[in-house]
Structure formats: structure tokens, C-alpha cells
Design a protein that fits this description.
Number of strands: 6
Radius of gyration: 22 Å
CATH class of the largest domain: Alpha Beta
CATH topology of the largest domain: Dna Topoisomerase Vi A Subunit, Chain: A, domain 2
Strand order of the largest sheet: 2-1-3-4
Oligomer: single chain
Number of helices: 11
CATH architecture of the largest domain: 3-Layer(aba) Sandwich
Length: 291
């Protein structure tokens, strides 16, 4: 991984220590195949007790990480911004290369004929990579809500679920969101509006739950007092809130996997996987004839 220095900055001894701890966290998650957003990295530092949890601490930590990257002390690839990226067409150096790529990308719907149609919805776009990694393995569609879902997208989703009802016994949305006044309410909002649009689907909130907060002890934040839903939330949960980003990505991955597994007919799934393997092998034989 590249560590490229563009500036010469002097750090205080305690800042050097924190930079080393930051690199330890980065290495820990890189070994598991994860990169981190700045906010995810910050919450992992808080959870390990390296820094306090406050808006000022978040700002200071962000500035330190920025300067450490500029001086070559933190890898440029270690922290990602999943909300901004360059888009471009794919290019190929030869016909054989695109044929081989097509074989690798070829995939049938291995969840076809499953009795339960499943989608995974996550409140934050910044967590799409973590969610997507689990969903790709399971061949389950996923969706970043980006807060409250727009009316247009909710209606489109309802039509999708209505169409699925003709070939599945039931439909489930696995929902993940922050545990704060709005984040908790979003699960209700999704269920209510899909019901209004006559879609027969059950919204199952698997994170972040009160039980998970007790189990994993993610670092808390003050509840947003300006949120119109704050009063009822505080009466139920108290004055603290918790962000989904604060959970270890492996926990999020495992929660999605276990919940989807529980909704899966494995005999049907394995039969579809066998069909896929046979079709890929047939494609490879044709490809070999062209080489």
C-alpha cells in the first residue's frame, strides 16, 4: 500500500502514538479484507478506548489522519470515501480477455424459486461496501436508503415486491440503521409506506437494536434534541444514541449472513449452484477453442 509524503509536518509525541494505533486498526481490518471510511475508523478508535467520543474529538482525529497521510505516515488507500468516485467505461486489451471476464462474471439467479424473496436495506450509503460484500456472497439485492427513502423509490420498491409475490410465498426486507430517533423510526416508516402501497412484505430490523447495544457496547452519542421524534425515543431508550458505523464490519456481515441463511431453502440453492457450475464449465470449453 502506498505511503507517499507531500508535506513535512512535525507531530507531538502523543500524536505519533495515536497514528501508530490508527495504523494498527487499519491493518487489523485490512487483514480481514475491509477498508474503512473516516467515520468507521473513528468509531473503532473510540470503541478500543484510544480516543474520546465527541464532535471535537472527531474533528481532531480527522485532522490528524489528514496530516499523517500527507506526511506518508498513513496509507492513502487505507481510508475510503464511498460517496464520491469516478465512473468510466470498462476497457479490454483483447477479445480473449473480455471472454474470460464474461465467464467470471456470468451468474444465474441462484435464489430463483426460493420461497422467500429477500432484500437488504441499509440506512447509510457509507456502509454499502460492507453490506454489499455479504449480499454478493448470498446473491441478495441490497439498497442504500440514504436516510428516509423518497416516495418515488418507495413506490418503485412496492411494485417490485408485488411482482415477486406471484412467484414467492413471502417477502422480507432486512433493515439496518442507526439507533437514534430517526434511525429507529425509519424501520416503521418503510413498513408503513410499503403497506400503504399494497406490498405484502415484512421489514425485519436486524441492526442496530437495543440488545446489540447491550451486547457490543458501541460508543454512544447524545440523542439529537432537534429531532421531532426525540421525546418518544428518550422516554424509551434514554438520552444517548448509537450509529451503525460503530459496529465492527464483521458483525454487520455476520448478522446479514445469518439472517439470510435462516430464510433460505438450501436444497434449492445448492441445485441452482450446480447448474451455474456446469454452465460456467461449458463456457470455458468454448473459450478454450478460441485461444
Amino acid at each position: 500500500m502506498p505511503r507517499v509524503a507531500y508535506k513535512d509536518i512535525s507531530f507531538r509525541p502523543q500524536s505519533i502514538v495515536l497514528i501508530e494505533l490508527i495504523n494498527d486498526v487499519i491493518s487489523e481490518y485490512a487483514s480481514m479484507g475491509y477498508d474503512l471510511t473516516l467515520r468507521q475508523l473513528y468509531y473503532q478508535l473510540v470503541a478500543k478506548g484510544y480516543i474520546e467520543n465527541s464532535q471535537q474529538s472527531y474533528k481532531r482525529t480527522g485532522e490528524l489522519i489528514n496530516n499523517a497521510r500527507l506526511t506518508g505516515l498513513i496509507d492513502w488507500n487505507a481510508i475510503v470515501d464511498r460517496t464520491r468516485s469516478l465512473k468510466e467505461r470498462s476497457h479490454w486489451s483483447s477479445p480473449n480477455q473480455i471472454i474470460d471476464s464474461a465467464i467470471n462474471q456470468y451468474f444465474i439467479d441462484i435464489r430463483k424459486d426460493q420461497p422467500v424473496y429477500v432484500e437488504v436495506w441499509v440506512e447509510k450509503e457509507a456502509l454499502v461496501e460492507v453490506v454489499g460484500r455479504a449480499c454478493h456472497e448470498l446473491d441478495v439485492p441490497y439498497f442504500a436508503c440514504r436516510g428516509y427513502v423518497s416516495q418515488s423509490e418507495m413506490w418503485s420498491a412496492s411494485q417490485r415486491f408485488i411482482n415477486q409475490s406471484y412467484c414467492c410465498e413471502r417477502a422480507v426486507i432486512i433493515h439496518l440503521g442507526d439507533h437514534d430517533p430517526s434511525g429507529v423510526d425509519m424501520t416503521r416508516d418503510i413498513q408503513d409506506r410499503l403497506t400503504m402501497f399494497e406490498a405484502d412484505v415484512y421489514v425485519d430490523r436486524i441492526a442496530l437494536t437495543w440488545e446489540q447495544i447491550q451486547q457490543y457496547s458501541p460508543p454512544p452519542n447524545p440523542a439529537k434534541l432537534t429531532d421531532s421524534r426525540c421525546k418518544n425515543y428518550i422516554e424509551t431508550y434514554g438520552s444517548e444514541s448509537w450509529e451503525l458505523d460503530a459496529l465492527n464490519p464483521t458483525i454487520i456481515h455476520d448478522l446479514i449472513r445469518s439472517n439470510v441463511w435462516d430464510l433460505t431453502d438450501w436444497e434449492l440453492l445448492n441445485a441452482r449452484k450446480q447448474i451455474l457450475a456446469e454452465e460456467k464449465e461449458q463456457m470455458r470449453k468454448y473459450s478454450d477453442l478460441l485461444k
